[in-house]
């Protein structure tokens, strides 16, 4: 449709465009620029070329943070996507009566991660926390440990919290997707004598493959950008065992006042996220070309 | 017909146990808010000896929680309002009109959808410092609105794209102006989309933490996430107070969600799937 | 007909967009005016004086509020507004955020030394030489109080407290029950700890989630072992952090780890929780600063506690050195109420309020503040120790570059946690701050 006045469409987009450019696009470009300088946020700019990038690549803490976040992402794929799929399977195995459970599992998604982190900080408390308390009560007190203070358990502990929060989210997504499968298909499987478990794995899951792939993409890109839980629960500790890119970034920029270096790291992180998205798109395209069920 | 777990009772038992374990941390939090500090410390799993809501009142008063809730309300409602207004206008423009540059503009927003927060928050911080935007009650509205716009535009545009073009052409023939079409046709059609966007944006804004932490350090203006964090570190060893504060902040959220769960879940899953 | 409609609708459209913009502007204007409020040069115009600091505890907060009430009574046009932040946050991003944001404070707390220098370089420090040399403010302090608070010959900070950064606080009752006397050497301290441990009590309890509690303590140990000069050189990066003398000094921390005298949860709990272990009698000793006194009096009134300085050990340093830092208040150079700020600080430093501060457990640098009969003997003793110490050691995080301090703290935490050897940890630390 043509507008009455030529400038109407532009005017309509203007407020959104202005705010977005000001608050987001502009800063993205600026971050790129900053990455080639040394700047403490208020003083002079010193051009340093790609020094910041070289430092970032060789920074042991930054590299370790990628490893940590990768482990975290793998765990969340199991604990969030996997658990979500399992829960979705459970609640779709019956036509009625599961509404209550779906609501219950989704509750943690609504809460601010800070609140979740503080509560779970207490759950993991070595002296009076819920977990150690339960372990003692059932006679497994020897397993009780300082969950967030032991380098072997800290990362897993944070991942478990993440799983607790988001499994319900993925459950809801998969539930909606499964519900969109025409019921004739599940009926047909049942008539053929398949059990619920078989129906789930052989029929429903393949049909929502797209959604599962998207879910994994969400888990990966979302996990990479994690901050809240890690900052509140451990802030990189113990001894940097749970330092992830964003917590380190915040320290470098806001504690050490190293804007240039932080910007270089931010650009590397951005490139990684975009690359992950690109890989996903490429894999999907390949699947289509190969005639998959895309 | 073979059922998954052989019997109804077994299924529901398993589900109930799962649900109980799942919500255990929250139930423990509520229980502990009624116990004294030494009780919490020495017998973590015991039931409270008395249900005394005065601890909750204490937490609210001592922690100035009302202030944080107010700030969260203010920031969230203003941000979501801005997102809805700006995005509906823009989605209307993208979906209904043809004009030069449309593709470029839309691509910019699409790019914004991909950009992680790390790609801009450092420079955004410097920019806000330069313009003295940081440290006010309304500070967070700016980034929250900006961050919510790309997804909102995308969702609303998808909704509008599904409307037959003839509707607009017919209205045009009837002599309607651009804005009249917006008011009379577009807005009503967008209602479900607006609801979805609202749910998304409210959640994102209400629970946002990183920017709230970095941009607003004056306790007067803190929102719930940062306010609660400040409270928890100040009273870290007054466990009862802390559990009470956590409880009175989470229970209303859970209650609201339970009441509106249909809309909430629909909103979030729709948004994610699209 | 068409054209007429178009014009009207054009106006409508402008109306929509315009009203959105007006709404936005009104919102901004409304929020702005509610937070600022004064700008004229009229001396009686309402003034909001903003004072910011990390939370000093409830007792001291009351003294601040009393000062504010008194000041407001004598200056009716002034409202004093406090911002008591979480102290860990204040020390890291809290203060810079405040200074760079709207509603920046007119008066704010800082540590003397490198941090003061940083603020000065950033342009947030006002010159108060006049008030000190010629005004009432200067009458409240001796020359010595301004140590580390003078830059380029200018007074730039109003002294507040002298803080001993770390001493070993101990539970007198536990010591008495176990027949332990105050250790006079490092080995005695270790032996005492082992006795306590055998009795099922945590010998030394500390919460090191934020790295500075153990950092300050072990850095003091390092300076005793390698000598103050080498310590200073290391922190100034004149010698690398993984130099042999530093690695050797770290062996003392290794000894702490191997004898298991520190609580297991050391890196998972923060400083407040660590103190709680001490308050509840679960830990017999707690290495933290002089500010513990006022806090303990309030939170654990029945606790019978005292302190001893780090006992002498075998090393090149001055074995009765004290790790300490002065703190003070800075008038923001960007404030439009610097005079009001100075007046307020003058009132705060006056004997009336200084003595209230002493009641609340502070250790003010103001002259004569501690010349009283009723000051807690521990505080007097700490101050005397500070004044008679053979050497004063500056803590890494307030006296030196923060990146260097952080790297050292991380290394110390790793060695105490048994996760790395001194050589490994220090090499990593040095790598972090640049080869």
Description:
The complex is a heterotrimer of chains A (294), B (274) and C (435). Chain A is mostly helical. Chain A has 13 helices and two strands; from the N terminus they run H-E-E-H-H-H-H-H-H-H-H-H-H-H-H. In chain A, strands 1-2 form a two-stranded antiparallel ribbon. In chain A, helix 4 (99-110) crosses helix 7 (154-179) and helix 12 packs antiparallel against helix 13 (259-289). Chain B has helices spanning 8-32, 37-42, 54-62, 65-96, 102-114, 121-130, 141-161, 165-173, 178-207, 210-215, 224-234, 239-259, 261-273. Chain B is built from 13 helices and no strands. Chain B is an all-alpha fold and 274 residues long. Chain B is globular. In chain B, 75% of the residues lie in helices and 0% in strands. With 435 residues, chain C is α/β, with parallel strands linked by helices. Chain C has 19 helices and twelve strands. Chain C has helices spanning 2-35, 58-74, 87-100, 114-122, 129-134, 172-177, 186-198, 212-226, 228-235, 244-249, 251-258, 271-279, 292-299, 338-349, 351-359, 377-388, 396-399, 402-416, 422-432; strands at 47-54, 78-85, 107-111, 150-151, 154-155, 158-164, 167-171, 202-204, 283-288, 305-308, 322-331, 392-393. In chain C, strands 1, 2, 3, 6, 11 and 12 form a six-stranded mixed sheet that branches. In chain C, helix 8 (212-226) crosses helix 9, helix 8 (212-226) crosses helix 18 and helix 18 packs antiparallel against helix 19 (422-432). Chain C is globular and about 70 Å long. Classes of the chains: A mainly alpha (294), B mainly alpha (274), C alpha/beta (435). The interface between A and C is medium-sized, with 33 and 34 residues.
Relevant terms:
heterotrimer; B: 274 residues; mainly alpha; 0% strand; globular; C: 435 residues; alpha/beta; six-stranded mixed β-sheet; four-stranded mixed β-sheet; 19 helices; 12 strands; disordered N terminus
């Amino acid at each position: 449709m043509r507008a009455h006045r030529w400038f109407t469409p532009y005017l309509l987009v203007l407020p959104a465009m202005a705010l977005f450019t000001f608050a987001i696009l502009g800063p993205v470009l600026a971050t790129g620029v900053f990455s080639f300088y040394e700047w403490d946020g208020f003083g002079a700019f010193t051009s340093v070329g790609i020094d910041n990038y070289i430092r970032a690549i060789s920074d042991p803490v930054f590299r370790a943070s990628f490893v940590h976040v990768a482990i975290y992402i793998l765990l969340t794929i199991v604990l969030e996507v996997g658990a979500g799929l399992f829960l979705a399977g459970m609640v779709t195995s019956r036509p009625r009566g599961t509404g209550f459970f779906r609501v219950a599992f989704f509750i943690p998604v609504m809460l601010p991660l800070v609140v979740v982190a503080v509560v779970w900080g207490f759950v993991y408390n070595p002296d009076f926390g819920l977990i150690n308390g339960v372990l003692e009560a059932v006679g497994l007190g020897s397993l009780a440990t300082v969950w967030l203070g032991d380098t072997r358990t800290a990362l897993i502990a944070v991942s478990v919290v993440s799983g607790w929060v988001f499994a319900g989210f993925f459950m809801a997504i998969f539930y909606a997707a499964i519900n969109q499968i025409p019921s004739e298909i599940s009926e047909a499987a049942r008539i053929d004598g398949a059990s619920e478990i078989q129906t789930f794995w052989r029929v429903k899951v393949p049909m929502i493959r797209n959604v599962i792939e998207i879910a994994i993409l969400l888990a990966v890109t979302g996990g990479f950008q994690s901050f809240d839980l890690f900052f509140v629960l451990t802030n990189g500790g113990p001894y940097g065992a749970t330092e992830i890119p964003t917590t380190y970034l915040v320290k470098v920029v806001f504690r050490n006042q190293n804007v240039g270096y932080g910007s270089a790291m931010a650009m590397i992180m951005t490139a990684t996220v975009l690359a992950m998205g690109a890989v996903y798109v490429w894999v999907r395209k390949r699947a289509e070309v190969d005639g998959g069920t895309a | 017909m073979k059922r998954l777990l052989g019997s109804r009772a077994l299924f529901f038992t398993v589900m109930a146990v799962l649900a109980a374990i799942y919500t255990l941390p929250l139930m423990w939090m509520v229980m502990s808010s009624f116990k004294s500090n030494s009780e919490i410390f020495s017998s973590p799993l015991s039931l409270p000896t008395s249900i005394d809501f005065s601890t909750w009142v204490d937490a609210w008063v001592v922690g100035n929680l009302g202030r944080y809730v107010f700030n969260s309300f203010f920031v969230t409602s203003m941000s979501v309002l801005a997102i809805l207004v700006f995005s509906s206008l823009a989605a209307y423009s993208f979906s209904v009109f043809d004009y030069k540059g449309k593709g470029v503009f839309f691509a910019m927003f699409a790019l914004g959808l991909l950009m992680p927060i790390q790609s801009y928050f450092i420079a955004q911080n410097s920019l806000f410092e330069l313009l003295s935007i940081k440290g006010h009650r309304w500070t967070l509205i700016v980034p929250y609105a900006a961050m919510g716009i790309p997804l909102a535009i995308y969702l609303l545009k998808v909704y509008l794209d599904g409307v037959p073009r003839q509707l607009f052409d017919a209205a045009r023939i009837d002599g309607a102006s651009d804005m009249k079409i917006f008011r009379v046709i577009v807005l009503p059609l967008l209602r479900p989309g607006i609801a979805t966007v609202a749910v998304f944006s409210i959640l994102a804004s209400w629970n946002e933490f990183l920017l709230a932490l970095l941009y607003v350090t004056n306790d007067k203006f803190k929102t719930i996430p940062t306010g609660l964090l400040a409270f928890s570190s100040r009273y870290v060893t007054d466990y009862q107070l802390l559990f009470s504060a956590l409880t009175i902040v989470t229970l209303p959220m859970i209650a609201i969600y339970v009441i509106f769960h249909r809309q909430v879940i629909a909103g979030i899953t729709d948004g994610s799937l699209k | 007909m068409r054209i007429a409609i178009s014009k009207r609708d054009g106006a409508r459209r402008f109306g929509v967009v315009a009203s959105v913009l007006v709404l936005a502007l009104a919102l901004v204007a409304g929020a702005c005016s509610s937070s600022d409020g004064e700008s004229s040069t009229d001396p009686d115009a309402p003034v909001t004086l903003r004072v910011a600091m990390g939370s000093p505890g409830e007792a001291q907060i009351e003294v601040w509020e009393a000062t504010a009430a008194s000041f407001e009574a004598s200056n009716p046009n002034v409202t004093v507004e406090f911002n008591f932040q979480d102290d860990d946050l204040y020390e890291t991003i809290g203060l810079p955020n405040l200074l760079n944001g709207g509603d920046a404070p007119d008066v704010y707390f800082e540590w003397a030394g490198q941090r003061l220098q940083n603020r000065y370089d950033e342009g947030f420090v006002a010159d108060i030489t006049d008030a000190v040399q010629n005004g009432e403010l200067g009458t409240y302090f001796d020359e010595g109080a301004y140590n580390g608070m003078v830059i380029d010959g200018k007074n730039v900070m109003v002294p507040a407290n002298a803080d001993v950064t770390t001493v070993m606080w101990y539970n007198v009752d536990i010591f008495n029950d176990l027949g332990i006397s105050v250790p006079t050497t490092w080995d005695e301290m270790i032996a005492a700890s082992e006795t306590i441990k055998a009795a099922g009590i945590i010998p030394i309890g500390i919460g090191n989630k934020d790295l500075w509690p153990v950092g300050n303590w072990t850095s003091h140990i390092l300076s005793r072992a390698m000598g103050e000069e080498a310590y200073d050189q290391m922190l100034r990066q004149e010698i690398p952090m993984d130099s042999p003398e530093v690695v050797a000094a770290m062996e003392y921390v290794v000894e702490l780890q191997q004898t298991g005298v520190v609580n297991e949860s050391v890196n998972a709990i923060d400083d407040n929780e660590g103190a709680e272990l001490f308050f509840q009698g679960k830990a017999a000793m707690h290495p933290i600063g002089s500010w513990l006194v006022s806090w303990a009096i309030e939170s654990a009134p029945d606790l019978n506690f005292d302190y001893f300085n780090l006992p002498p050990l075998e090393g090149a340093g001055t074995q009765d050195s004290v790790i300490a830092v002065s703190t003070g208040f800075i008038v923001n150079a960007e404030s439009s109420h610097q005079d009001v700020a100075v007046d307020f600080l003058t009132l705060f430093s006056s004997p009336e309020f200084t003595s209230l501060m002493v009641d609340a457990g502070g250790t003010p640098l103001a002259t004569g503040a501690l010349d009283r009969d009723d000051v807690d003997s521990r505080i007097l003793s700490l101050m005397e120790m500070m004044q008679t110490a053979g050497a004063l050691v500056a803590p890494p995080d307030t006296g030196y570059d923060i990146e260097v301090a952080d790297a050292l703290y991380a290394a110390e935490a790793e060695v105490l946690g048994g996760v790395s050897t001194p050589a490994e940890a220090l090499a990593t630390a040095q790598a972090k701050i640049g080869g």
